[in-house]
């Protein structure tokens, strides 16, 4: 039955090649633009750590003084050193990590080549097991290494390759500025996107190349690089350990909702305690976002991308209205042929289905054009300097999604013209012929 | 031109007429908003920036030992000034559009500190001696810094320099003291305070996102060579800047082997800052053009169908004495009427979309000037699209009327 309809459809489309081509191109353009943007949007809002993200939480506290206090204000997005250390050592979660971004000057071994910058992360020991960071060789450091400021480092595979060869790096000496470190681990490819664990510097930056224990890096004054926000009088403390400033990110793993609830209560209790001690001044104001909630709260998708997506969808709508018009033209023109079919006994339903089959073919062809266009669009986006550019890649769901969207959109555009065409009275049209 | 027969015909062909109106309305709404977004991006790219951009070269030196700054910076500067063609060289904390922002908040009363309520956030440019000349600052009022003021500007590990003088941009001076001269006024951030000695032309912040009213809130401070700054600016003739850049990077790298020297011309700093913006603008233009083409093709399709349907009626009109021109004008007027209806609808829609975007994406209100531009564009597109089918209609010979349908 459908084979017959598709045969009819093909013959009919061949008869009006210009009109058919117009429709295919219009649908292709609309679908191409929308799928490009929808793919980018989907990848930008993807779960960076599938399987782990539901257990990871980001706590917020409000240690600021009363200046500018608003009862329903949001607490700062980072923690002060004292609070980060208190939460870290309280060990209320299954795992917890305090960390900050840094930028180090790497001095290649044996004076080969020029010194260069590498992005770095100074983190407490749980960073690697908590986020499931895969190691190619060696491993991370222990909490004890962190506490006694051991001079150890973990490198990304790319940097280890560049400096020593990835397989020979462990055990080597790494010189960063004026200090040296022993390399104890090399991470395999690992680059979660969005860069969820620190969104202060850019939401889609790449993961870092050098990892150092937090206490070690701070004690050696390896350069920190990131946002810091302060209140009260100017900070005088060089290490910022006692300063009235927030500058650390903190994550905690909580395995069950009950644990999350307990942890939130712990944060409130902690705030009350700090207030009683005179360190906090504001009433307890805590947040505990899970990973996806934290990304949402930080609006990881830039407004410009959202606007472009809306624009692309608007463009698709224009293309679809255009397709409605062209299909109407096409179907009504065939009034004579359809009337013959009706007169020979085809029901309205059968004619309707036949016309939809024809539209589905157009949609499929439009989808193919759209697929090519969106591959081109994604390629164009990848050439952009934007931070999220590298995310713009085609994948399986996108390929299927494009064809499905094209067919669905064309079918919905065809419903009205097809309905109109079946309502023509066959007798009148036949007489006119 | 008689309109009534057109209206009567349109009443009989409601659906194709409605589709044309709808196509034009949608295209108009999307077009107005897209063009608005494009123009905002384009105006971003051409923002005024009161420094000598053409001859400027910027080299960043990072990873030096801050304790040796006071001996290394003068040595580096002397070497840079030795490069042939360098007219001025100086050190600064940052340059406009470099995204390396050092901001601070100041109040206008002595008790204000950085986190006080009614303070104004500004971007700080700390200039070493000669920085004003190297950047090519344009003084508007008062004076720039003197040698004694540069020498007194110790920074060390602190956030703000010692010393008590500053130069502001015009925009900032006007915002802080509207209607008055800023000269002699004071900015406070306990325990620091700075007296305004000069007002210079507007200069952009290192980072301000996209266009916003505070993008020129900039203050300059003189600092001495104890300040561990790392941005070297050099000025030369524009045609020599590429060579100056290469030599400057090589020289700084050779003098400071443990540090990292990276440089670019100021033109590249600016292009990099706006690269995203300009490529996005081109993409929007592309989408608009394609959308208008699709709309036009849709109108061609519908009008052709329409003409084909009415061949006999056209023949009768011709037989009764209508000229070819009359038939041509008939279809053109018809299209004009439909386009007008579509445009009116499209304007309402465009306004609605703008309101939605304003609410969700901090977009300003669309200036009314975009509406007539959108209207004229769509009228033209409509007329252009209908021309072919209308000419075909005009070519229908009167004899068609006599043939049986």
From TrEMBL, chain A:
GO terms for molecular function: transmembrane transporter activity. Pfam families: FtsX, MacB_PCD. Residues 311-425 form the ABC3 transporter permease C-terminal domain. The chain crosses the membrane at residues 21-44, 310-329, 350-379, 399-419. Residues 20-261 form the MacB-like periplasmic core domain. GO terms for cellular component: plasma membrane. InterPro entries: ABC3_permease_C, MacB_PCD, Macrolide_Exporter_MacB. This is Putative ABC transport system permease protein. It comes from Fulvimonas soli. Keywords: Cell membrane, Membrane, Transmembrane, Transmembrane helix. It is a multi-pass membrane protein. It comes from the Bacteria. It is found in: Cell membrane. Its main location: membrane. Signal peptide: none annotated.
TrEMBL record, chain B:
This is Putative ABC transport system permease protein. Pfam families: FtsX, MacB_PCD. Belongs to the ABC-4 integral membrane protein family. GO terms for cellular component: plasma membrane. Residues 56-224 form the MacB-like periplasmic core domain. The keyword ATP-binding does not apply. It is found in: Cell membrane. PANTHER family: ABC TRANSPORTER PERMEASE YTRF, MEMBRANE COMPONENT OF TRANSPORTER-RELATED. It is a multi-pass membrane protein. The chain crosses the membrane at residues 15-38, 280-308, 336-357, 369-387. It comes from the Bacteria. GO terms for molecular function: transmembrane transporter activity. InterPro entries: ABC3_permease_C, MacB_PCD, Macrolide_Exporter_MacB. The lineage of its organism: Bacteria, Pseudomonadati, Pseudomonadota, Gammaproteobacteria, Lysobacterales. It comes from Fulvimonas soli.
């Amino acid at each position: 039955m459908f084979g017959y309809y598709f045969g009819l459809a093909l013959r009919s489309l061949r008869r009006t090649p210009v009109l058919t081509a117009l429709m295919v191109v219009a649908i292709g353009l609309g679908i191409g633009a929308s799928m490009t943007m929808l793919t980018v949007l989907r990848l930008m809002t993807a779960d960076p750590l599938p399987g782990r993200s539901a257990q990871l939480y980001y706590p917020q506290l409000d240690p600021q003084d009363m200046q500018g206090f608003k009862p329903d204000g949001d607490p700062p997005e980072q923690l002060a050193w004292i609070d980060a250390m208190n939460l870290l050592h309280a060990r209320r979660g299954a795992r917890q990590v305090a960390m900050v971004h840094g930028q180090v000057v790497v001095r290649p071994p044996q004076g080969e080549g020029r010194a260069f910058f590498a992005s770095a992360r100074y983190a407490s020991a749980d960073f690697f097991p908590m986020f499931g960071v895969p190691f190619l060789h060696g491993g991370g450091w222990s909490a004890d290494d962190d506490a006694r400021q051991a001079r150890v480092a973990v490198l990304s595979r790319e940097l280890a390759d560049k400096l020593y060869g990835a397989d020979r790096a462990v055990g080597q000496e790494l010189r960063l500025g004026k200090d040296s470190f022993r390399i104890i681990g090399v991470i395999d490819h690992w680059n979660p996107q969005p860069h969820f664990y620190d969104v202060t510097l850019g939401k889609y930056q790449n993961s870092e190349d050098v990892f150092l224990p937090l206490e070690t890096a701070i004690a050696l004054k390896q350069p920190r690089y990131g946002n810091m926000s302060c209140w009260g009088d100017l900070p005088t403390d060089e290490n910022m350990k006692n300063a009235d400033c927030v500058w650390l990110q903190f994550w905690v793993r909580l395995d069950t909702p009950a644990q999350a609830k307990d942890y939130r209560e712990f944060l409130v209790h902690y705030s009350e305690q700090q207030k009683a001690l005179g360190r906090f001044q504001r009433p307890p104001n805590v947040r505990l976002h899970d990973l996806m909630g934290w990304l949402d709260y930080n609006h990881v998708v830039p407004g410009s991308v959202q606007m472009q997506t809306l624009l692309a969808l608007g463009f698709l709508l224009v293309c679809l209205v255009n397709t409605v018009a062209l299909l109407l033209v096409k179907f009504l023109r065939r009034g004579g042929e359809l009337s013959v079919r009706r007169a020979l006994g085809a029901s309205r339903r059968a004619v309707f289905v036949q016309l939809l089959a024809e539209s589905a073919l157009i949609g499929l062809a439009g989808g193919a054009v759209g697929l090519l266009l969106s591959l081109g669009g994604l390629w164009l986006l990848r050439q952009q300097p934007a931070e999220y550019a590298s995310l713009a890649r085609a994948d399986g769901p996108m390929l299927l999604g494009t064809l499905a969207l094209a067919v669905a959109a064309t079918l919905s555009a065809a419903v009205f013209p097809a309905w109109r065409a079946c309502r023509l009275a066959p007798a009148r049209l036949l007489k006119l012929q | 031109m008689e309109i009534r027969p057109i209206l009567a015909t349109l009443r009989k062909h409601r659906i194709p007429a409605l589709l044309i109106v709808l196509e034009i309305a949608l295209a108009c709404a999307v077009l107005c908003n897209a063009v608005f977004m494009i123009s905002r991006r384009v105006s971003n790219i051409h923002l005024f920036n009161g420094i000598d951009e053409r001859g400027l070269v910027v080299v960043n030196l990072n990873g030096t030992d801050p304790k040796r700054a006071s001996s290394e910076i003068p040595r580096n500067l002397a070497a840079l000034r030795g490069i042939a063609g360098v007219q001025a060289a100086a050190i600064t904390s940052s340059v406009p559009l470099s995204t390396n922002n050092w901001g601070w908040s100041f109040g206008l009363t002595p008790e204000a500190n950085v986190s006080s309520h009614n303070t104004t956030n500004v971007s700080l440019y700390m200039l070493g001696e000669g920085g004003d000349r190297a950047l090519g600052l344009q003084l508007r009022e008062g004076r720039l810094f003197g040698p004694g003021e540069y020498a007194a500007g110790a920074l060390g590990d602190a956030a703000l320099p010692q010393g008590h003088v500053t130069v502001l941009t015009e925009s900032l001076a006007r915002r802080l003291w509207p209607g008055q001269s800023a000269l002699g006024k004071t900015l406070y951030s306990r325990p620091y305070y700075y007296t305004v000695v000069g007002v210079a032309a507007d200069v952009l912040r290192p980072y301000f996102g996209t266009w916003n009213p505070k993008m020129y809130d900039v203050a300059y401070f003189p600092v001495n060579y104890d300040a561990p700054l790392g941005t070297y600016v050099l000025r030369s003739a524009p045609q020599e800047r590429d060579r100056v850049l290469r030599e400057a990077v090589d020289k700084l790298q050779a003098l400071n082997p443990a540090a990292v020297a990276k440089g670019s011309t100021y033109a590249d700093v600016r292009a990099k800052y706006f690269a995203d913006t300009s490529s996005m603008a081109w993409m929007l233009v592309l989408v608009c053009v394609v959308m208008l083409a699709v709309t036009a093709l849709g109108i061609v399709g519908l009008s052709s169908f329409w003409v084909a349907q009415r061949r006999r009626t056209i023949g009768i009109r011709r037989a009764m004495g209508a000229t070819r021109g009359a038939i041509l004008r008939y279809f053109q007027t018809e299209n004009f009427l439909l386009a007008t209806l579509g445009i009116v609808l499209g304007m309402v829609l465009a306004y609605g979309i703008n309101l939605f975007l304003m609410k969700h994406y901090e977009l300003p209100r669309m200036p009314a000037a975009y509406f007539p531009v959108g209207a004229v564009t769509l009228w033209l597109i409509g007329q252009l699209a209908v021309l072919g089918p209308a000419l075909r209609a005009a070519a229908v010979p009167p004899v068609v009327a006599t043939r049986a349908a």
